[in-house]
Design goal:
Length: 115
């Protein structure tokens, strides 16, 4: 059973870059046809898909966040990461990593953007 675990700072200052890592266990991020996503949920709002990195390293991003988002991976650690630049308080949310084809989610991590 594949398990995902988010990690990273819970507090980020405005204009800085938010960085989160998702560690995957029970399966390889390079397994063919699997994809690995980042999704967030701001307080009082619905889920927002941010982007995905596919098994071959290809990345795709939400058009609304594309200019500020980067997803990368470290295959040696079986991890994939999210970077969101120039954050504002509107980026405050619970951030989840997700494997859509497997139906697996991390437990989510709260990130607050505040000075």
């Amino acid at each position: 059973q594949v398990q995902l675990q988010e990690s990273g700072p819970g507090l980020v200052k405005p204009s800085q870059t938010l960085s989160l890592t998702c560690t995957v266990s029970g399966g390889s991020i390079t397994t063919r046809y699997y994809a690995w996503s980042w999704i967030r949920q701001p307080p009082g709002k619905g889920l927002e898909w941010m982007g995905v990195i596919v098994y071959d390293g290809s990345t795709y991003y939400s058009p609304s966040l594309k200019s500020r988002t980067s997803i990368s991976r470290d295959t040696s650690k079986n991890q994939f990461s999210l970077q969101l630049s120039s954050v504002t308080p509107e980026d405050t949310a619970v951030y989840y990593c997700n494997a859509p084809r497997l139906g697996s989610w991390g437990q989510g991590t709260q990130v607050t953007v505040s000075s």
